[in-house]
Amino acid sequence: MATAETIVFVIDDDPSFRRSTEMLIGSAGLTVQGFSSAEEFLRSRRPDLPACLVLDVRLPHLSGLDLQRELAEASLEIPIIFITGHGDIRMTVQAMKAGAIEFLTKPFREQEFLDAIQRAINSDRAARLQRAKLADLRGRYQALTPREREVMAHVVTGMLNKQIAHELGTTEKTIKVHRGHLMQKMGVKSLAELVRTAERLGIFGHPS
């Protein structure tokens, strides 16, 4: 398992279980931070690292499922492994539909638990990479001039340079120059790549 560059958060109101869980996670070489309540977790300053959340379903005040919902509403994306001593089918379905990585019932097998943590951290690492790539694409798109965005919006619909030139009231040569610049700025080498990029940005055919 990756260690120093990841962290596992544990939220459980049972001190003895929380300590034993932290020791188990630590024995796998992982950094771990424990909390006694969902509110304590929300108040904390957490490192910006690939992570996962080991979360008890039944917590005082704000429950595990409530916290899952609050994190989703706040767009705080962190993979969750639910643990409970009172699991039922309804809670399991609700948690998994909302994106939980795993739902384990106490007592669980240690290796099963550690494997779930590894999957969760790998999932968060991949999601962070995708978000970073998307942020880079957005930055590249924002660096385009207004006219380059117009040209891009037409290019990705399959229009030819001469058609775009007619549509925008300019010359085909000018469109070729704009097209070359925007392709370079967007970091793509083909029309197919540009179309995929536009789709990821959600601006397909809509300059903004």
Highlighted features:
5 strands, 5-stranded parallel β-sheet, alpha/beta, 12% strand, 9 helices, elongated, single chain, 55% helix, 208 residues
Give structural notes.
The chain has 208 residues and is an alpha/beta fold. It is built from 9 helices and 5 strands, in the order E-H-E-H-E-H-E-H-E-H-H-H-H-H. It has helices at 15-27, 38-43, 64-73, 89-97, 110-142, 146-155, 161-168, 172-186, 191-201, and strands spanning 7-11, 31-35, 51-56, 80-84, 102-105. The protein has a 5-stranded parallel β-sheet with strand order 2-1-3-4-5, with helices on both faces. It is elongated.
Secondary-structure blueprint:
Elements: E1 7-11, H1 15-27, E2 31-35, H2 38-43, E3 51-56, H3 64-73, E4 80-84, H4 89-97, E5 102-105, H5 110-142, H6 146-155, H7 161-168, H8 172-186, H9 191-201
Parallel strand pairs: 1-2, 1-3, 3-4, 4-5
Helix pairs in contact: 6-8, 7-8
Q: Kindly state the percentage of residues in helix.
A: 55-70%
- C-alpha end-to-end distance: 43 Å
Gyration radius over CA: 24 Å
Give the class from helix and strand content and strand pairing. alpha/beta
* Helix/strand order, N-terminal first: EHEHEHEHEHHHHH
Q: Please, what is the average pLDDT?
A: 90
Name the shape in a single word: elongated
Fraction in beta strands: 5-15%
The largest sheet has its strands arranged as 2-1-3-4-5
